[in-house]
Amino acid sequence: MITRRAVLLAGASAGVLALSPSASLGRASRSVDTLPADAPVRRLSLSAREVDLPILGADKAVTKRFCAYDGMPFMTLRAPQGTRLMVDFKNDLPDPTTVHWHGIRVPNDSDGVAPITQKIIPPGGSFAYNVPLPDPGFYFFHPHCDETGQVGRGLVGLLLVDEPPERQVPFDLEHIIAVKDWRLGEDGQWLEMFTTEGASTAGTFGTVRAVNGLPTPPRRSAPANSDVRLRVIVADSTRVIDFGCDTDEAAVIAVDGQAITPFTFDKVPHGIWRMGPAMRLDVHVRMPEAGKEVKVYDYRSAEPYLLTTLVATESGKARTDFVPKALPIATEVPMPDLDHAERLDFLVQTAAGATAIAAPLPADDPLSKALIDSMCVGSATFWAINRNSWGAGPDLRLPPPLSTLKDGQSYILSITNATKQPHPMHLHGHVFRVLSSSKKKTMPPYVADTVMTEPNETVEIAFKATSGNWVFHCHILEHMDSGLMGWFMVV
Ligand code: C2O
Ligand code: CU
Questions:
Q1: Is the whole model's pTM more than 0.90, yes or no?
Q2: What are the boundaries of each domain within the chain?
Q3: Ligand 1 pocket, Cβ-based, cut-off 6 angstroms
Q4: Which residue has a Cα nearest atom 3 of ligand 1?
């Protein structure tokens, strides 16, 4: 099924900066652009629509109402670093939606979060997104309204941003592993995505495990002793995986698209890298001798679940020592000043009702009366951050910000998970340093946009705040749709 169309946006022409037509919302609406005005521009149209697809196989029933960007599952955009995408988005779904560019440092008014950065896009409506690509890496885009339902039915796109040719590190093969299950009944039709049991516990799981959309894990061949780059994403709404492989000659080279000093899997506890929904990983794998295979697994399942088999073919290279290839570290990403950082503590907890304790917004702030669109969130509230739940209560009033931050100031967020479930926490508009974990003492240093917090774990992250209204939420989609989301106002 997976006809992944890479829309190659190569070749540059001097750009004309188009202005985003979106209206300013709230006090912190100064949108910071992360590329110069004369950066090369690529215009593209993108639509979200429903299609009927035989996702279980040609001999099985066609699944109705699959959601996909441009009608293609895992539609993939690829563009050089430093390009500005001007995306004319059209909502051809029968429901409201928005587009969020996960991990990309976009101007706030292109971040896709109703009601704090834009209004929802109604069926038939459109929106112009200004998506600068200041950093290389592996990103994705998805709706930020009824995420559980729309992502559950397939609405996810991938976005690869390449370094300029002179900084590119060559590999013999690049292979994407998109982990996403399908939640289908025997008849091949969608089951309910949001369930009360799921939303209040670990989330509702799919019924069919799949990699790159297909129930059969991919097999790829690469020359013996050659170098493969795996680009792994957990695009599932719920599933947490323990990524690992059955070779010693494999190293993590980027986390959430951000290059790091490479480390082999023997440097991390249990030889696995835990990945929750939205997390990405770039892995350098050295192929074995001809005829041998490398198997890549999710070791979290009771039986290790095969994600991909890499088969070494004849026509190989001569065997050399395995030295993980280091990708160029993106110097453009603003890093926090830890000596002058302010500390903020957050508790991820179960909801205690609509008892928000954060200070309300001043009455003259346009967002003080904003409501969350009922079509965008779940029907129940189970989770909170510092006793704030997103969209709690029958009136769906926007909760006050978790905190009001200063543009350019560095912050250390200490996040304590006081629940029985893991929560992969994502901060919009920023890339943060993961400083410490109370449970994983031997963690290598890395930067990310989503960090796992396990039950009873405290994780510290640090970032430099950028002007805008930015949400901070769990990426288990039923959790965020049932309260586990808050926002920072950065002024
Ligand atoms: Cu993928 Cu609000 O995020
Ligand atoms: Cu969660």
A1: yes
A2: 31-167, 173-313, 338-490
A3: 100, 102, 142, 144, 278, 426, 428, 471, 473, 475
A4: 102
